[in-house]
Design a protein that fits this description.
13% strand, 270 residues, homodimer, 6-stranded mixed beta sheet, Rossmann fold, alpha/beta
Chain lengths: 270, 270
């Protein structure tokens, strides 16, 4: 399957509304399920190579409107991976300490070390999304932040950290349905926050903010993928497939042993 | 006293050898001593304003050849300041965790929060000084690091962190004398390391590396000062004076009280 149509790897301008949110790529449900299982196994193998090589690293960013499935995407992905060298970091409202620094300070601190993968549940992009929509910073500050983000992602790339960014794309109607489900199910109430409705009311402002952020902060070293996220199997396949291909292209190598394995024999202890 | 002749605030090329290392600015020793005391008092007042305002911050970088007086400069300066909101961070050989990240990762983590001052004893500039001299990274990597440093310092500036960088400039002969003193005095042996002589042997390579780093990474928001460092009183006066002027220009304000001070009376408890 080819996901190039959903890849943004150079600065560009585009309309989110023109991209699908519910999509199966013409593949049957059962086949998507099977494919997903295969990809997760492959991904685990590539992760082991990355960890063994201990030179490069992978940063995966997830951004989306509320209820688009960030938690579920990350949860499924990390289940497939080894907890050795795989981290998840969620970014909420900055703490007092975090707010006392530049917006990339807490982000940089959580960047993966060599051999490791880190998934960001929200990220530095919040500082050009929610902050832009609410005008908590002026337009010039937002402009400068795009540059700071590009510079920062280039710094990571130069050290061997590949950055892959997923925007989980859903429709306004789909969010409505998910919110209603959260309100109807007491076990999901913790996931709902009345403030979410205020953000929902600014839907089109958010779409414009996403279009600018993705359009301004895309590069070959740190591409965005706009994932049609309503079909969860297709979503999972796309994410796993993109990450598998990314790791494949990074081509991590098992290190040469610094001993001669033929010299040693392992005896059972009598 | 005017220190503009020692200020580098735009990209430039220059020769360190043409700048003085032993200099008193035409001021008598006793007068320098008196001036230094006055400046330290002033500096403490400005630091209090910075701390009370809790919006901006100050990062002071010290770089120099061995035995030029980094420890002593920082020690004297911090004695004059309040430990509240004043930090010193020394950067040695990167740890395994630090080396598993980009070169600015550990630097960014130590950047001052709003209201605070941090002194860096060595810094990210080691990654374009010792690393360049020993060719631990190729020329292209060093070039890219200059850009990364400029981008990083601009990120700090945009958040209200002023960066001031001091290169303590000494002659080769002066270092010889200081090394001899360290060897002759058992109380100073801990400050000497036979490897220091290997670095000394690369003196002119270091001078070229300093010239490139300072020439490439100078801006109005993050200027370098090349301090004639052999006369320690002049050195201290220059450092204190530059920092006093920097804080003055930052113009930190005591915050408006959120209460009416005339409403309250404080009684002695009977």
């Amino acid at each position: 399957m080819d996901f190039d149509q959903f890849r943004v790897a150079t600065p560009t301008s585009f309309e989110l509304a023109k991209l699908p949110t519910d999509y199966d790529g013409g593949v049957k449900d059962d086949d998507l399920k099977e494919l997903r299982e295969e990809l997760w196994l492959e991904l685990a193998e590539w992760q082991e190579r990355l960890y063994a090589e201990n030179k490069q690293s992978l940063l995966v960013v997830f951004q989306a409107m509320d209820a688009a499935g960030k938690d579920s995407s990350i949860g499924k992905l990390t289940s497939a991976l080894s907890a050795h060298g795989c981290h998840v970091k969620s970014f909420k409202k900055p703490s007092t300490l975090e707010a006392g620094h530049d917006f990339l300070w807490r982000i940089h601190a959580a960047a993966p070390k060599s051999g490791e993968m880190t998934m960001f549940n929200r990220s530095h992009y919040e500082d050009v999304l929610i902050v832009k929509v609410h005008q908590w910073a002026d337009a010039e500050t937002i402009e400068r932040r795009y540059d700071h983000i590009n510079n920062f992602e280039r710094l990571l790339a130069d050290r061997g950290t590949k950055v892959v960014k997923f925007m989980l794309n859903i429709s306004k109607d789909y969010q409505l349905e998910r919110f209603q489900r959260r309100l109807e199910n007491p076990d999901k109430h913790w996931k709902f926050n009345p403030g979410d409705l205020d953000e929902r009311a600014k839907w089109s402002d958010y779409m414009h903010a996403f279009e600018s952020a993705i359009g301004r902060c895309s590069s070959d070293e740190a591409p965005w993928y706009i994932v049609p996220a309503e079909n969860r199997k297709y979503r999972d396949v796309m994410i796993a497939s993109v990450l598998r291909d990314t790791l494949k292209a990074m081509d991590p190598q098992y290190p040469e042993p610094d001993f001669d394995p033929t010299v040693y024999t392992v005896d059972s202890i009598s």
